[in-house]
Amino acid sequence: MDNMGLGIIFEGNNLLRLLGGLWITIKISFISVFVSIFLGIILGMIMTVNSRIIRVITKIYLEFMRITPQLVLLFVIYFGATKVFGIDIDGQTSAFIVFILWGTAEMGDLVRGAILSIPKHQFESGTALALKKHQVYLYIIIPQTIRRLIPQAINLTTRMIKTTSLIVMIGVVEVLKVGQQIIEANRYTAPDAALWIYGVIFFLYFIVCYPISKAATILEKKWASN
Amino acid sequence: MVDYIKSFDIDFIKQHIPQYVDAAWLTLRIAFIGIALSLIIGLFCSLILHFKVPVIRHIVKGYIELSRNTPLLVQLFFLYFGLPKIGILLDSEHCAYIGLSFLGGSYMAESFRSGIEAIGKIQTESALSLGLSRFQVMLYIVLPQAFSVSLPSLCANVIFLIKETSVFSVVALADLMYVAKDLIGLYYNTDEALLMLVIAYIIILLPISIIAGILEKRLRHG
After folding, report:
1. Distance CA B70, CA A16 (A)
2. Residue ranges of the alpha helices (H) in B69-189?
3. Average pLDDT, rounded, for chain B
4. A42 touching chain B per CB within 8 A
5. Domain at B9-221, CATH from 3.50.4.10, 1.20.1560.10, 1.10.3720.10, 3.40.630.30
6. ipTM exceeds 0.95, yes or no
7. pLDDT at B8 over 90
8. Which residues touch B187 (CB under 8 Å, ≥6 apart)?
9. Where residue B10 falls among pLDDT bands split at 50, 70, 90?
10. What Å distances lie between residue B185 and A44, A66, A85, B193, CA to CA?
């Protein structure tokens, strides 16, 4: 048989292996997103503090994380850090480090934007109603900030999932690597496997990301109206 | 740390700077063409969505969802390794252009769309009552205003797309990433190669990021 077409996906446990690879991608991005959201909220609050030094330091961190491609960061951690500190970091760990560092920067900026977007009169009206400072934050500012934040945080999650595809370049066996293995293993029996395997991976990513980004759009619309 | 910095091989860096410069030009050329194509695609897509052109509108929507929800790396693998199996052979540079504009088009479309939506209906209605045609209203009234509204997000997309060019080394395009990987493989000078790589990207992207920041501040005041 020299032309198996789509059949290659369903042969043996190929589909399960692909899904297993996808799971690694998703696992890395979800854990990174979770940690980034937590650290990003702290960073975002720090960034609104009125201190020149803190502003400069956070700004440099943010700019650096934003303008350096994630692939370059992965290389710097995976190959560079190993040499500089003489420690052995495996691919997954360096992926976690890079995505948490990057995610924290992005999330921090979103949090900062959300806090600054709350008009000043909200603080003032709250105070005028004799609410204490922590009450103003708890009942007025934080609920509004979260509404602005959640859709953007969800969007960050899809970006994270998409960017996680890069970890194949530092030797993590995830969905693309598994795909390559299947293609190589069937080089003679199914020469056109590449088309189908990469096509399936393409749609797997779509199936994962589409509902998430759809949820972000729906929430954005719902909360924007009231 | 000082010892570490002293251990840097300055001669190696000097010797290989030209390679990085060439690669940087290639990265810039691909980014420039890719971004120009994405802007055109994005503008057309957003106009189709705005005017609610039947049938095509749904195709555009599908394209936007498909391209926004899949990683560029996977798109490239499909283009470069998948398509030749059905006889569509693309060289790496064309793959890069197609990949980048396929990805960028949808991002640009979303930026333009939100810009057009932000322009009040009153603008269109006033212009129509002045006797301008729908085409003229779009060209002279809505688009110029929409463009300045969406400029910050367009700039963000430009930075995003230039960063995305770093994955083109997988389709054997000799960009910055490729040169760095090559040098690491050939000479084991990992630190120097990676340092130059980071610096090269900072040199390319920092000015753009600063300009974007200035534009955004200006628009907020305006």
Report:
1. 20
2. 72-77, 92-118, 121-129, 134-136, 143-164, 176-187
3. 88
4. no
5. 1.10.3720.10
6. no
7. no
8. B12, B193
9. confident
10. 40, 27, 20, 10
Q: What is the pLDDT of residues A149-165, one digit of tens each?
A: 888 888 888 888 999 88
Q: How far apart are CA B102 and CA B111, in angstroms?
A: 15
Average pLDDT over residues A37-56: 87
Which of A29, A73, A75, A89 is the best substitution to test chain B (most B C-beta atoms within 10 A)?
A75
The pLDDT of residue A1 is above 50: no
Closest alpha carbon within chain A to B7 = A84
Domain limits, chain A: 7-225
**A56 inside 8 A of chain B by CB:** no
- Residue A11 confidence (pLDDT): 74
Residue B68: its chain A contacts at CB < 8 A?
209, 213
Contacts of A76 in chain B (CB under 8 A): 194, 198
Whether A210 and B65 lie within 8 Å, measured CB to CB? yes
Q: CATH assignment of A7-225?
A: 1.10.3720.10
Q: Which residue has the tokens 């690669």?
A: B23
CB contact under 8 A, B201 and A198: no
Chain B residues near residue A84 by CB distance under 8 angstroms: 4, 191
User: Which of B4, B70, B195 is the best residue to mutate to test the A interface, defined by the most A CB atoms within 10 Å of its own CB?
Assistant: B70
| Neighbouring C-alpha atoms within 13 Å toward the C-beta of A169 | 26
Q: Which residue of B has its CA nearest to A79?
A: B190
- Residues B63 and B106: their CA atoms lie apart, in Å, by 7
Domain borders along chain B are 9-221
Most confident of A67-81, A108-122, A133-147, B25-39: B25-39
Task: Please give the radius of gyration of chain A, using alpha carbons only, rounded to the nearest integer.
Answer: 22
Distance to chain B for A131, nearest Cα, Å? 32
Summarised one tens digit per residue, pLDDT across range A48-82 is 888 889 989 998 999 899 888 999 999 888 888 87
Residues 6+ apart with CB under 8 A from B222: B148
Nearest-neighbour CA in chain B from A46: distance (Å): 20
Q: Which residues of B touch A183 (CB under 8 A)?
A: 81
| Residue in A9, A83, A195, A220 to test binding to B, most B beta-carbons within 10 Å | A195
Q: Of the candidates B75, B81, B163, which has its C-beta nearest A194's C-beta? A: B81
Could you tell me if A218 and A57 are in contact, meaning their C-beta atoms sit under 8 angstroms apart?
A: no
Query: Do you know the residue count of chain B?
Result: 222
pLDDT tier for residue B102 given thresholds of 50, 70 and 90:
very high
